[in-house]
Amino acid sequence: MKTDLFYPTDPSDKVSLPVTNGTPSGTPVVVGSLVGITATAEGKDGNVEGNASVWLGGAPRVPVTTATAVAVGAPVYITSAYVLTPSASGNTLWGYALEAKGTAPATIRVKIAKV
User: Fold this and answer.
1) Helix, strand, or coil here: 23?
2) What span, in angstroms and rounded, lies between the C-alpha atoms of 10 and 97?
3) What is the total count of domains within the chain?
4) Considering the domain boundaries, does residue 68 fall inside one?
5) Same domain flag for 46 and 65
6) How confident is the model at residue 87, as a pLDDT?
7) In what order do the strands lie in the sheet with 51-55?
8) In this predicted structure, what is the pLDDT of residue 13?
9) Gap between the Cα atoms of 68 and 81, Å rounded
10) Residue 1 within any structural domain of the chain
11) Structural domain range at position 27
12) Rounded to an integer, what distance in angstroms lies between the CA atom of residue 18 and that of residue 76?
């Protein structure tokens, strides 16, 4: 998945964290209360099996696949299946939209929330 990241300048924003087996790079993830996007695939580039390097900051371009419109500045949440949505119900805050999205699924830039 191409994410077109704006990378953070703080090196502590990229850490090795446990992810689901087979998670590719460029995947939005939630690990406990931490949210981010994988910079590497699980088990690759120096990570032990079961971990990936994860950016905890930045503003990647990511798919928001719901039929609900999203305004600039609106919160974006992540589901337990790692799908980004504007729906808060039962989901974890992942970031804030930096671009608007209409009612069709779209790829937009989202600022990862610092929780």
Assistant:
1) coil
2) 21
3) 2
4) yes
5) no
6) 94
7) 14-18, 51-55, 34-38, 28-31
8) 85
9) 18
10) no
11) 11-55
12) 22
- Output the tens digit of pLDDT for each of the chain's 115 residues: 455 556 566 777 899 999 999 999 999 999 999 999 999 999 999 999 999 999 999 999 999 988 899 999 999 999 999 999 999 999 999 999 999 999 999 999 999 998 7
Two structure tokens written together for 94: 């992942």
Distances (CA, A) of 30 to 4, 38, 69, 100: 19, 10, 23, 23
In three-state secondary structure terms, 56 is coil
| Consecutive H or E run containing 29 | strand 28-31
Per the structure block, which two tokens stand in for 6?
A: 């704006």
pLDDT for 50 equals 97
Residues 49, 31, single domain; the answer is: yes
User: What pLDDT is attached to residue 11?
Assistant: 74
Distance, in Å, from the CA atom of 84 to the CA atom of 92, rounded to the nearest integer, reads 10
Instruction: Report helix, strand or coil for 13.
Output: helix
3-class secondary structure, 11: helix
